[in-house]
Design a protein that fits this description.
150 residues; mainly alpha
Length: 150
């Protein structure tokens, strides 16, 4: 039986909603992240999303997924890093949840798998991939012009 589906469900219902009290926007962003990730993993592994297991979502696949977001879907660095933060949150939760179930060897493998995924790093946001100061000045000027008169 796949441990991915019950772990995802517990992550959303127990961790995000009950423990963290996450906003509906955060939950929607995380949902979108996992929807994209599961579709991408299903295409790469030639499986249906419901057949995927946690072991199918390894560090090389997540790295390829992040590159797919950045270069094929043309997501910005910040969006890529936000998606990675959602993945890190899930696998941090999964490491704690999964280490309490199963045989000792299975526990060690699961925690090791999750820790390898948590080692995937974010991309640096540099001035070359953010708006220039001139752009920010123009935005500020336009915002001031749009303010109602007092």
């Amino acid at each position: 039986m796949s441990l991915l589906a019950p772990t995802l469900q517990a992550f959303f219902s127990d961790r995000l909603m009950a423990q963290r009290g996450a906003s509906s926007h955060t939950i929607a962003a995380y949902r979108d992240t996992f929807r994209l990730l599961l579709r991408y993993a299903a295409d790469c592994k030639y499986k249906q999303p419901c057949q995927l297991d946690i072991a199918d979502l390894d560090a090389p696949l997540v790295g390829a997924f992040l590159n797919h977001l950045e270069y094929e879907r043309h997501n910005g660095i910040r969006t890529r890093n936000n998606r990675l933060a959602a993945i890190h949150a899930l696998f941090g939760y999964a490491a704690l949840r999964l280490c309490t179930s199963g045989l000792p060897n299975a526990k060690a493998r699961r925690v090791s798998h999750c820790s390898r995924l948590l080692a995937v790093t974010t991309s640096a946001v540099t001035p070359s991939n953010t708006a220039s100061p001139t752009t920010w000045r123009k935005r500020l000027r336009n915002a001031r012009q749009c303010e109602p008169s007092k």
